[in-house]
Design a protein that fits this description.
Elements (H helix, E strand, L loop, with lengths): L1 H11 L2 H27 L8 E4 L25 H12 L5 E5 L9 H7 L4 E6 L6 H10 L2 E6 L4 H8 L3 H14 L5 E6 L4 H4 L2 H9 L4 E6 L15 H17 L3 E4 L19 E2 L5 E2 L6 E2 L10 H6 L2 H11 L6 H4 L1 H11 L2 E2 L5 H7 L18 H9 L9
Parallel strand pairs: 1-2, 1-8, 2-3, 3-4, 4-5, 5-6, 6-7
Antiparallel strand pairs: 8-9, 10-11
Helix pairs in contact: 14-15
Length: about 400
């Protein structure tokens, strides 16, 4: 597997882009990890990378998506606020940022951000519906971008959740990225409906053949105005999901990423580990992407982002709340308690809907916390990745 993956990296990705990824993503990521660990020892709160939801504009209406407004206009982050936040993060040696939405390619100032910060590396989570030739050329020219194209199964499964025709258009985008030899990945949400398909060798091979170098798996969470709880992954399937991931990792020449388990196979919540907070399109500093609530905003403390996050009692209490209940996903396991916690914290609901009411109406579901059924990584390569570079850059070690 490793030899084939290395050969793919040498022959399928531009050497210039590979070098930029190594220098800006990997090497700077290791320095970010070291700084993050120093902050932990001092009791300081600041993550090793950030999510920026630059806009909640989107051309799709996917089932179970939290980016759906009710009777409100589209909101977008002012480019000046994003620019200031990136400068402030750099003071803490944070240079990797994920840009998402909504659909980030509908954000007018997207290119301005990446052009102004050649010292940073950006991952853009996109639905792949706007990846025309000009966009691909600009991505390649800048070189500090890795697109992550969202596809949730083959055509039938994907289009059932994302809308008719979205699969074919996303695949065409993948082909353009492959032709340009761009380092890119595919993001797949695993549901109870699509799990057998998306965790098959055929599915993974499809995107290897399309030039993707990594495949990022997320587990479905029922949120938003159309939560679709029937798409949740059952306990039995969650255990099977973990087993299949380990099997595919040993066989397929592509990096398969999950955000859920440590190298020891124990569940982890990235937000509870302060691995990456989420900045919403209103500027709120939120615990994680699906939880659109905030007590602090980018404009607080005259834009001093470290001071705002480090002194946030809400973010610290949220971490304590999660850790006292589960190693997994509190949204799935304790939605009603979570709603009560947010009410007690008197948070600002930045969802554009009524997130707390949605949580109150939810019932507990299985998450990736599988006490007594933990399955450790069994491939040394992934043990190393989990401890050094995977999501959280070593926070899972």
């Amino acid at each position: 597997m490793l030899a084939r993956f290395c050969w793919r990296g040498v022959t399928e990705v531009s050497w210039r882009l590979s070098w930029k990824a190594v220098r800006l993503w990997v090497v700077k990521g290791l320095f970010a990890l070291r700084a993050y660990r120093k902050r932990l020892k001092k009791g300081e709160l600041f993550p090793p990378f950030l999510f920026f939801a630059v806009t909640d504009a989107c051309n799709l209406r996917c089932r179970g998506c939290w980016i759906q407004l009710t009777g409100q206009q589209v909101r977008s982050l002012p480019v000046e606020a994003v620019d200031r936040a990136i400068h402030e993060a750099a003071k803490q040696k944070v240079f990797f940022h994920t840009l998402l939405g909504g659909e980030p390619f509908l954000y007018d100032d997207l290119w301005t951000i990446m052009e102004k910060h050649p010292e940073c590396y950006f991952q853009i989570i996109t639905n792949g519906q706007f990846m025309d030739d000009d966009t691909v050329r600009r991505i390649k020219k800048l070189g500090n971008i890795s697109p992550l194209v969202s596809i949730d199964g083959l055509e039938s499964e994907n289009d059932a959740r994302r809308g008719p025709g979205t699969y074919r258009k996303a695949v065409e985008s993948c082909k353009r990225l492959q032709k340009a030899k761009i380092l890119y990945g595919v993001a797949t949400v695993v549901t109870g409906s699509n799990m057998d398909e998306v965790l098959s060798e055929d599915y993974v091979q499809t995107f290897i053949d399309l030039g993707a170098m990594y495949l990022w798996f997320y587990v479905f969470r029922p949120v938003g105005p159309d939560p679709a709880p029937e798409l949740c992954v059952s306990h039995e399937k969650m255990v099977e999901l973990r087993k299949r991931l380990l099997y595919l990792r040993r066989k397929m020449p592509i990096v398969l990423i999950d955000t859920y388990w440590t190298a020891q196979g124990e569940a982890v919540c990235p937000a509870a580990k302060e691995l990456g907070f989420h900045v919403g399109p209103q500027g709120g500093i939120e615990p994680c992407p699906p939880l659109s609530v905030a007590r602090e905003f980018l404009t607080d403390n005259d834009g001093d982002l470290f001071k705002t996050i480090n002194e946030s009692g809400f973010l610290r209490r949220f971490q304590e709340f999660v850790r006292s209940r589960t190693r997994g996903c509190v949204i799935l396991e304790h939605p009603q308690e979570l709603a009560a916690f947010f009410k007690n914290e008197q948070v600002t609901d930045t969802s554009g809907r009524d997130l707390i009411a949605e949580l109150e109406m939810s019932s507990p579901k299985t998450s990736h916390h599988l006490p007594g059924e933990e399955i450790p990584e069994d491939f040394w390569f992934y043990k190393i990745l989990k401890k050094t570079l995977f999501f959280g850059m070593g926070g899972y070690g």
